[in-house]
Amino acid sequence: MPVSVLVVDDDRSIQKTVEIVLNGSKWSVQSAASGEEALTILADGFRGIVLLDIMMPELDGWQTLQAMVDREFVQNCIVCMLTAVHDPQEAMDPLKEFVTDYVRKPFTAEELVCALDELEGFLP
User: Fold this and answer.
1) pTM listed for this prediction
2) Residue-level pLDDT at 60
3) Using an 8 Å Cβ cutoff, are 112 and 102 in contact?
4) Which of 79, 85, 124 is nearest to 104 (CA)?
5) Using CA atoms, how far apart are residues 114 and 97, in angstroms rounded to an integer?
6) Is the pLDDT of residue 23 over 90?
7) Long-range contact pairs involving 110-118 (C-beta distance under 8 Å, separation at least 24)
8) CA separation for the pair 122, 32 (Å, rounded)
9) CA-CA distance, 64 to 60, in Å (whole number)?
10) Whether pLDDT at 19 is above 70
11) Contact assessment for residue 33 and residue 59, using Cβ atoms and an 8 Å cutoff
């Protein structure tokens, strides 16, 4: 059974890159262009790995993660921040416990697959 991955990024090229790298292998990829769209997918029962961009309009990655925590969606998911931000803000320290890993942009296909292979072992 494929491992579900939800890529949450407002940049369509990042969504497509992740889909191209992962689809056709052991991964099943869904994309969300916003935090709100991701929350809808999670509310519909998504279980798996969430690749969550930090810098997005409206709900940024940290706000989306807070909503995931508040709605208890993190119980069914592993969260990996997919970001160009090198140092998360200190104000987000309370949410860091819900982040299993960070994949830095730009990333290579090998880096992404390696990170997801490791994250797969943490799935509930």
Assistant:
1) 0.94
2) 92
3) no
4) 85
5) 21
6) no
7) 112/18, 112/21, 112/22, 113/21, 113/22, 113/25, 115/80, 116/3, 116/5, 116/22, 116/27, 116/49, 116/80
8) 22
9) 6
10) yes
11) no
- Sign of the torsion formed by the C-alpha atoms of 20, 26, 28 and 33: negative
Whether residue 36 contacts residue 58, with contact meaning beta carbons closer than 8 Å, is answered with yes
When pLDDT is averaged across residues 30-47 and rounded to a whole number, the result is 98
Q: Which residue is it, tokens 């104000």? A: 91
The string of DSSP letters for the chain reads -PEEEEEE-S-HHHHHHHHHHHTTTTEEEEEESSHHHHHHHHHTT--EEEEEES--SSS-HHHHHHHHHHTTGGGGEEEEEEES-SS--GGGGGGGGGEEEEEESS--HHHHHHHHHHHHTT--
Higher pLDDT, 37 or 90: 37
Q: Which domains does the chain have, with CATH numbers?
A: 3-120 (3.40.50.2300)
**Residue type, position 50, single letter:** V
30-62 burial by CB neighbour count: b if 16+ within 10 A, else e?
bbbbbbebbbebbeeebbbbbbbbbebeebbbb
Beta bridge partners of 7: 31, 51
